[in-house]
Amino acid sequence: MSTLTKQNQTILGKFGLHTLLVGVLFILMGTAGIIVPVVMSLGTVIFSAWLLFLGGVMWGIYTYRYDRKGFINWIKSTLLITVSILMLLYPMPSIEALALLLAIYLLVDAFNSFLLANSIYPAKSWFWMAFNGFTSLLLAILFLFGWPSTSLYLVGLYVGISLFFDGWALFAIGWALRKA
Q: Among residues 69, 76, 55, 176, which one has the least CA distance to residue 126?
């Protein structure tokens, strides 16, 4: 067995039934984001704000328990909580800021998808992961041209499209492995 085949088997062994289920879930969430992008934009900002808030509270608890004199840790906790509250109070500017972060995320996602496609090549469904990478790259480029004026619609639309194609890529890999 060649080294490439062993590497492919190791990587493909990480995918299983959960790959199909997550793929279907991502397809459904992506479809919802494409149909109602403004709702997906607001949902994305609200979800992100609550994650930051929870992270700030957890970091504050950690700091209180283990490093009460850690000034930097208290600043980190305070900043996370403050940013999350500002995001909840001012969702429109938050969507614009998140739009810029989303463009960066899509660039990273594209790079990661290309690396994963390359690492599983020539196994079945490698093309779908490469196609997912191309889609993420195209979305990132298009997103940067309209920023910030188109952020309200594009954040939700692009999150939806990215979830949709991530879902199809995962579903295709999971389906191919299920048949094998």
A: 176
For 155, the token pair is 């954040």
The candidate with the shortest Cα–Cα distance to 40, out of 80, 96, 95, is: 95
pTM reported for the whole predicted model: 0.66
The answer to whether residue 4 sits within a structural domain is no
Q: Let me know if residue 2 belongs to a domain.
A: no
Of 35, 159, 3, the closest CA to residue 95 belongs to 159
One pLDDT digit (tens) per residue for the chain, 180 residues:
555 456 556 665 666 678 888 899 999 999 999 999 999 999 999 999 999 999 999 999 999 999 889 899 999 999 999 999 999 999 999 999 988 988 898 899 999 999 999 998 888 788 989 999 998 899 888 888 888 888 888 889 888 988 999 999 888 887 877 665
Could you tell me the residue range of the domain that residue 118 belongs to? 14-179
Q: How many domains does the chain have?
A: 1
DSSP 18-74: HHHHHHHHHHHHHHHHHHSHHHHHHHHHHHHHHHHHHHHHHHHHHHHHH-TT-HHHH
Distances in Å between the Cα of 121 and the Cα atoms of 5, 26, 130, 174 are 9, 23, 10, 15
